Amino acid sequence: MSDNHLYEYAILRIVPKVEREEFVNVGVIVFCKKADFLEVRIQLNRDRINAFSHELDLDEVEKNLEAIRKVGHGECKESAIAQMEKPERFRWLTAVRSSSLQTSRPHVGLTKDLAQQLIELEKEYLS
């Protein structure tokens, strides 16, 4: 059991029309404090989003998703949030929002291999 990592994950979602509460999964965030692991993966499926609505500017959505990825990875030097420690970044990324870009509530799991678990979550939620 000591080989297992307790991790948290959340699913990034595009909500084309917030009032309808329909969404398309577009990313996965995986965090493990003990392993100092925070990874954000994005897969934007434009056709799937357009099936819900043509009103979103998907180029702008893509820019916002890239900014989230950079914040998650601590790459966005001009962002104070990107400079925070990984636990604080994960909490900020998964905070409840009422915009067209949201995350699921964080969920927990156990895994021996965080990188492989990330791949499995991508397959399950983004394919």
UniProtKB/TrEMBL annotation:
On the tree of life, the source organism's domain of life is Bacteria
The protein's matches in InterPro entries, at most eight in alphabetical order, are given as: DUF3037 (IPR021398)
In terms of Pfam families, this protein maps to: DUF3037
Spell out the protein name for this chain: DUF3037 domain-containing protein
User: What species was this sequence derived from?
Assistant: Weeksella virosa (strain ATCC 43766 / DSM 16922 / JCM 21250 / CCUG 30538 / CDC 9751 / IAM 14551 / NBRC 16016 / NCTC 11634 / CL345/78)
